[in-house]
Amino acid sequence: MTTSNITKKISDQATICFVNKWKLVEKKLQEQTETMKTLMDSLQSLSLSTTYSENIAKMVSSITHEVRNPLTSVSGFLQLIKQTNDIALIHQYTDIALEELTRANDLITDFLTLSKSQSNEITPLSINELLINLYPVFKSEANLKDINLIADFCADKALCTVNRQHLTQIFVNIVKNAFEATETNLLSRQKEVRITTTVCKESLVIMIKDSGCGMSKTQLKNLFTPLQTTKKNGTGMGLYVCKQLIEKYAGTVKVESTVDKGTTIFIHFPIYVAIN
Fold first, then answer.
1. For 121, phi and psi rounded to 5 degrees?
2. Taking the model in full, what pTM does it have?
3. How many whole angstroms separate alpha carbon 223 and alpha carbon 255?
4. What is the pLDDT of residues 69-96, one digit of tens each?
5. Which helix (H) or strand (E) covers residue 255, if one does?
6. Alpha helices in the chain (DSSP H)
7. Could you read off the pLDDT of 148-168 as tens digits, one per residue?
8. What is the CB-side half-sphere exposure of residue 16 using CA atoms within 13 A?
9. DSSP secondary structure letters along 154-220
10. Which of 8, 16, 205, 234 is placed for a possible disulfide with 229 were both Cys, Cβ 3.0 to 4.6 Å?
């Protein structure tokens, strides 16, 4: 095979690779368009008659601004792609564009959790039972991260009136954060996450404690502020969504944290009392 043939083959392979990557960008853009339409439809259907909805409405301008930032970056990189024939640069620009599209999509997805109810089913259910069902999932991730996961659920069969899907989202989000914080704390001798449930008066208390990097007073103060995050790839919406969902079911959340020692989150839900 001649040098010119080898060069042509490499060039053809690079072209095919670029075309495939470009198709992925186009697919992401199409998904983004559809997601944005869903967001707008959801916003139009919001009722502003409740405090919950009013809080969401106040966030619309901030969300729009935050989503516009990555989309503007994508537009800029697409323009740069048009102006160069350098395959390496084209790959670099398309990779960044894809990352920005993913970031915008994550923001919108988190917001849609608040603005559009995924399920209206609210029934008395056992939080202990739900956590027991989630435990294998948590345990699997803990093993991968070399974290000791300890679960201690009370024997009480107390029920709480909540939405199962929302409750699952709350626990998955908070436990995931606990794993990430514990994994990144290099000063911790024992990488451990503990999940317990207890009954306190008329409430079921869920405690999620980690041995992670902890938070400063300033970080703790802004913990549930939307669009603020210390994570490299975070949206700053996860814990805000969790807090809104907890309060939606008359629950409360309290956080204690010490830098380099860890964080403990207490979630209280009122216990369901059947009316005879």
1. -75, 110
2. 0.60
3. 9
4. 566 667 776 777 777 777 777 777 777 7
5. strand 252-258
6. 3-44, 51-82, 87-115, 127-144, 164-184, 217-221, 238-248
7. 999 999 988 889 999 888 888
8. 6
9. -S----EEE-HHHHHHHHHHHHHHHHHHHHH-TT-SS-EEEEEEEEETTEEEEEEEE-S----HHHH
10. 234
